[in-house]
């Protein structure tokens, strides 16, 4: 179940760099709030894919479900329930407000993952166990 893929790890690091750049330097209404969420899903997928030997489809679906769970936790204000609303890193990582557009961004990120892996990774196409 555990493995290491240098290719996926490098993709993850490059995506993380792009996300940090967006977070620090981009102040707009599309790239940071929407495209950033699309990229977060893709980044999380490649980060996990670098270390886990799990089927591409299952991993992509798991990342999508995790992303949705985080967003719904925002809707139900779970961070406040846990008394962590004043912890900056928790607010940065998990976000603070529910937004339906985030769910759309996560879904788009998931679709991008499926498309990229179907094209670039033969073991991900046509094989339900890949």
Question: Can you give a write-up of this model?
Answer:
The protein is an all-alpha fold and 130 residues long. The chain has one domain. It is 70% helix and 0% strand. The protein is globular and about 45 Å long. Residues 125-130 have low confidence and may be disordered.
The portion of residues forming beta strands comes to: under 5%
The whole-angstrom Rg is 15 Å
Q: In which range does the helix fraction lie?
A: over 70%
Which consecutive residue ranges, at least 5 long each, have pLDDT under 50? Answer: 125-130
What order do the helices and strands follow?
HHHHHH
Mean pLDDT: 91
- For the record, give the distance between the C-alpha atoms at the N and C termini, rounded to a whole number: 13 Å
Structural class: mainly alpha
User: How would a crystallographer describe the biggest sheet?
Assistant: none
Number of strands: 0
Principal-axis shape equals globular
The domain count comes to 1
Number of helices: 6
Descriptors for this entry?
70% helix, mainly alpha, 130 residues
In short:
The chain is mainly alpha-helical and 130 residues long. 70% of the residues lie in helices and 0% in strands.
What is the element layout, followed by pairings?
Layout: H1 6-25, H2 31-49, H3 56-75, H4 78-81, H5 88-94, H6 100-120
Helix pairs in contact: 1-2, 2-3, 2-6, 3-6
